[in-house]
DNA sequence: TGCTTGCTTGAAAGCGGTTTCACGTGTAAG
DNA sequence: CTTACACGTGAAACCGCTTTCAAGCAAGCA
């Protein structure tokens, strides 16, 4: 019988104690003598008692729910993080409740308010573009942690990933393979991650004393089509390049497709590296060399951060590192 | 000020009415005279009133929350449906709360119980493998709708997709292009969707009077690796084929990779069709012909079904159809 | 004019827990 | 042998909203 109409009062009667005592074994068992505690537990089992969460929350002010603001973007990166959060949360007393930011400023605010209305104990925001001020508005209601985003000017905790380093390492990998004419398809220029990856790209080039050809930097948007446009554009303008660093794997796929349309061989004529390590990346012909984003670890870290904050302790922001996955889309330059 | 400590009583005082009246304008505005209703509304705005959901739920028994059981499987299909559900739910009074079934039987039951403990008003189950009996156990607590799954022997509502038709149409497309030796990489044989897709494959072949070569049917698992194994296995055994129908796009990617490793051209020498229409499918060299699963529509349908049930009306199960997306991975057989 | 009917409204009783507070008890300290 | 103190416990207040119930009142009807 799931329709648990068994209340704390029933248990109290059955166990021969008061409601207060039953409540105590529920919340602070050690304050009740062994014998009564056992009696209560037995009664609970026998009657199949399930505490009513609403009554509980109403009385103590905690919902044991944490809100997640997702972004309705087609990238698997956020999905992976979300999944990881769901998983990690299973080990805790908290349940996740979702609200979608749709990658729009207003929608994101609305999403947070929805969650706040539902009295979540904390909120985790995946990406998005809230300003510190706006965040702060919500923050004094409940603790917030930002994932996949670092925000200067606010001292809350962020679980970020080092995009500059990823851009740097991807490019460095190409340089180490002897490439000099390295093109870059950027992500959405209005997206912080994109500019950081490009920053890493420039840094690696500068460090290797390779002059930067601005014409080889194509402003993309993280979508596949950007990759094909980039290649067409370079080819059309007669730019030559032996390698391309795409801001994400999806763009890299686009690059690869465009090259294949022109019968340009990968990696023999042009090498490619992306960022993300999507499942499909290992299946591209040839399998794509890329940088794996630690989505799972980030989800776990976010949950950990939230739970420690909720338990009254302090936590630090963390900046995670991507991992270079070497496959077959890069060859030494001949 | 978000820490809304403004209660219904404060509003009542401000508006010069009783708590009961305030509650009425909240729930059944028409039963209150225009003038008082306005006074209450004004008071609410001035004081920034946000009703306490717990108190509400405790009093009326509804949580305005609907539980979603997800499956922690790597496929984007479920993710898309989930996202679509989140989106659709935004238009309603309900908020989604998630619990992961991890594609394991016990975990799935646990997930449902978690949701039930939290007094969800209904639950939507994505895929999974619950039996009708188990479902029924939960079902008499709250309404349930199953998505991406048809279950014989239970009369609840299912939002399914016609897997037999998808398998049939994919195969038919190949047959129509003149192919006869059509191989098939199946999905996980223990997965109902997989067997239905294969059923469609067999049906199309039978209908065209093409004898079925069991050796050309490779038992896969929906993962990419299965596709490469399938090709290796066929080639090793000297089987010849001019086309392959992969149970999903991921497998198709594997097939494509393996072929490319053997320098077998797609689609010139071998044609491929998959199922899913992932974002990456359009970017494969060559872009993959596939069958698009109506994930968004299914999510919407699920939400619609749930809300109508919750509003006391009846709904029917629906069986959706996939859509053939013709791209460049299939050529006429010469 | 008298009585019924229907509508609006407030008081109060829940919903099912948690928590304060005061009241024994048993034990340690004076 | 008191006085004190900690501890376990139950009664009752409370969390904030919904809903029943009965009362008040205006309109409808004979």
Explain briefly what this protein structure is:
The first copy, chain A, has 334 residues and is α/β, with parallel strands linked by helices. Helix content of chain A is 44%, strand content 16%. Chains A, B: InterPro entries: HTH_LacI, LacI/GalR-like_sensor, Lambda_DNA-bd_dom_sf, Peripla_BP_I.
List the defining traits of the structure above:
homodimer; 334 residues; alpha/beta; Rossmann fold; six-stranded parallel β-sheet; six-stranded mixed β-sheet; 12 helices; DNA-binding; Lambda_DNA-bd_dom_sf (chains A, B); transcription cis-regulatory region binding (chains A, B)
Describe the structure.
2 copies of one chain form a homodimer. Chain A has 3 domains: 8-51, no CATH class; 65-162 and 295-320, Rossmann fold; 163-292, Rossmann fold, CATH 3.40.50.2300. Chain A is built from 12 helices and 12 strands. In chain A, helix 8 packs parallel to helix 9. In chain A, helix 11 (249-261) links the parallel strand 8 (243-246) and strand 9 (271-276). Chain A has a 6-stranded parallel β-sheet with strand order 2-1-3-4-5-11, sandwiched between helices. A 6-stranded mixed β-sheet of chain A has the order 7-6-8-9-10-12, with helices on both faces. The first copy, chain A, has helices at residues 8-15, 19-27, 34-47, 53-60, 76-89, 105-117, 132-139, 163-176, 192-207, 224-236, 249-261, 295-310, and strands spanning 65-70, 95-100, 122-126, 144-147, 157-161, 182-185, 217-218, 243-246, 271-276, 289-292, 318-320, 323-325. The first copy, chain A, is an alpha/beta fold and 334 residues long. Chain A binds a DNA duplex (30 and 30 nucleotides) through residues 7-9, 17-24, 26-27, 31-33, 36, 51-61.
């Amino acid at each position: 019988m799931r329709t648990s109409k068994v209340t704390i009062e029933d248990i109290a009667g059955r166990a021969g104690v008061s409601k207060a005592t039953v409540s105590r074994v529920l919340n602070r068992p050690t304050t009740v003598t062994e014998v009564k505690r056992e009696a209560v537990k037995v009664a609970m089992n026998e009657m199949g008692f399930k505490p009513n969460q609403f009554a509980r929350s109403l009385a103590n002010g905690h919902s044991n729910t944490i809100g997640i603001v997702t972004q309705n973007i087609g990238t698997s990166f956020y999905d992976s993080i979300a999944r990881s959060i769901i998983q990690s949360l299973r080990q805790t007393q908290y349940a996740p409740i979702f609200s979608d930011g749709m990658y729009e400023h207003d929608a994101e605010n609305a999403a947070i308010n929805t969650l706040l209305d539902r009295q979540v104990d904390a909120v985790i925001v995946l990406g998005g573009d809230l300003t510190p001020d706006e965040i702060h508005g919500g923050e004094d209601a409940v603790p917030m942690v930002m994932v996949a985003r670092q925000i200067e000017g606010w001292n809350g905790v962020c679980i970020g990933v080092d995009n500059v380093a990823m851009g740097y390492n991807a490019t460095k990998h190409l340089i180490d393979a002897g490439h000099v004419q390295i093109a870059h398809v950027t992500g959405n220029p209005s997206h912080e991650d994109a500019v950081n990856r490009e920053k890493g790209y420039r840094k690696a080039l500068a460090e290797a004393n390779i002059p930067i050809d601005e014409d080889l930097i194509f402003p993309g948007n993280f979508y596949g089509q950007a990759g094909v446009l980039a290649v067409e554009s370079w080819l059309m303008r007669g730019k030559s390049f032996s390698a391309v660093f795409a801001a994400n794997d999806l763009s890299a796929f686009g690059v690869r497709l465009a090259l294949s349309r022109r019968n340009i061989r990968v990696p023999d004529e042009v090498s490619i590296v992306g960022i993300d390590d999507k499942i499909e990346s290992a299946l591209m012909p040839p399998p794509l060399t890329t940088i794996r984003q630690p989505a799972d670890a980030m989800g776990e870290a976010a949950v950990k951060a939230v739970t420690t904050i909720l338990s009254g302790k302090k936590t630090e922001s963390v900046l995670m590192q991507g991992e270079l996955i070497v496959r077959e889309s890069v060859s030494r330059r001949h």
